[in-house]
Design a protein that fits this description.
There is one protein chain. By secondary structure, this protein is of the alpha/beta class. It is built from eight helices and seven strands. Strands 3-2-1-4-5-6-7 form a seven-stranded mixed β-sheet, sandwiched between helices. α2 links the parallel β1 and β2 (about 110-120). α4 (about 150-165) packs across α5 and α4 (about 150-165) packs parallel to α6 (about 215-230). The longest helix is centred in the first third of the chain and has 74 residues, at about 5-75. The termini are far apart.
């Protein structure tokens, strides 16, 4: 018969063995987990390093190609806009650098600077809609847009009549006094800004804008661009690619299957500026397209037209 003392000692030995087993087992598991974590970290670090190297190589390639586009631009655009006045409309969110760079390429193409009109934040502020609508309704612009037309169309009609030449005969829509009245009225109301004495009627309109969080801004600028296209010989919307989650005018025009206004989505690059100028020239010939680097672009740039005869 087993004594109580021996029974207790046996139980103690069993529990001690279990304890030792648990300790040894947990140590083994911990070691395995640690080794797996270390291996995973090393693999992740290696993949990250490889991705960074690939990204750096792609950036170098893009920069070199963009530099090449800049080198070729003067030769490619030479004479494409010879003697054609281009009015620049600067929408909220546009980069001053993009505006100036686009104008330089247009000048290199022989285009004439018809001046710059800046849309203020008030021009796209829904709280100012009633005031804007009342202003346009009382401007001397000839046949007014429909009373229920959106505000982008109404403002585009006013700017188009005052700032562009008719497509059919390249003549101004309005007499000089009426043009001045329209522009000064809109400027005095804080809707637009421009330097007096610097504007002349343009044959084409370049609308430079930027990514915005407010989709309503993009919608209004898109409607304005469509209207300018109808009032003149053509319009191009150029936007810089950005991180904004909103939809800019270019994406809105593209999603609506726009077939009149041309769009450029990489205005902040040399290639985008080249595409902008070629798109303006294409508009003169009745062509249109959506160009740039986004998935919804149809090509990087318009096809090169024949070299103009001298």
């Amino acid at each position: 018969m087993i004594s109580l003392r021996r029974h207790v000692l046996t139980l103690v030995a069993v529990f001690l063995a279990l304890a030792v087993g648990v300790v040894l087992g947990s140590t083994s598991v911990a070691t395995s987990i640690r080794d797996a974590v270390v291996e995973r970290e090393e693999t992740t670090a290696a993949r990250l390093e490889a991705s960074q190297e690939d990204l750096a190589a792609e950036r170098i390639a893009v920069d070199r190609l963009d530099s090449l586009a800049g080198d070729l631009t003067p030769v490619v655009v030479d004479g494409r806009l010879d003697g054609r006045p281009v009015l620049t409309i600067v929408a909220p969110g546009a980069s001053d650098e993009d505006v100036s760079a686009a104008r330089e390429v247009i000048d290199a193409a022989g285009g004439i600077d018809a001046g710059r009109v800046t849309l203020t934040d008030k021009a796209v502020d829904p709280e100012a809609d009633a005031e804007l609508q009342a202003l346009v309704a009382n401007l001397p612009i000839g046949t007014a847009p429909a009373a229920d037309a959106d505000l982008g169309t109404q403002l585009g009609t006013a700017l188009g009549r005052a700032g562009l030449l008719r497509a059919e005969d390249a003549e101004p829509h309005l007499e000089d006094d009426d043009r001045e009245t329209v522009l000064t009225t809109l400027a005095d109301a804080g809707i637009i800004g421009y330097e007096p004495g610097t504007l002349r009627p343009g044959q084409l309109a370049l609308v430079v804008t930027g990514p915005r969080d407010e989709e309503s801004t993009g919608v209004r600028v898109a409607a304005l661009a469509r209207t300018l296209d109808g009032e003149g010989a053509g319009a191009v919307v150029a936007v810089r690619m950005g991180d904004s989650g909103g939809r800019d005018a270019a994406s809105i025009l593209r999603s609506s299957a726009e077939e009149d206004v041309s769009t450029i989505d990489d205005a902040g690059t040399e290639a985008g500026r080249l595409a902008t100028t070629l798109a303006l020239a294409e508009q003169l010939d009745g062509g249109q397209g959506h160009y740039g680097l986004r998935p919804d672009a149809t090509a990087a740039a318009p096809s090169l037209p024949p070299t103009p005869e001298r």
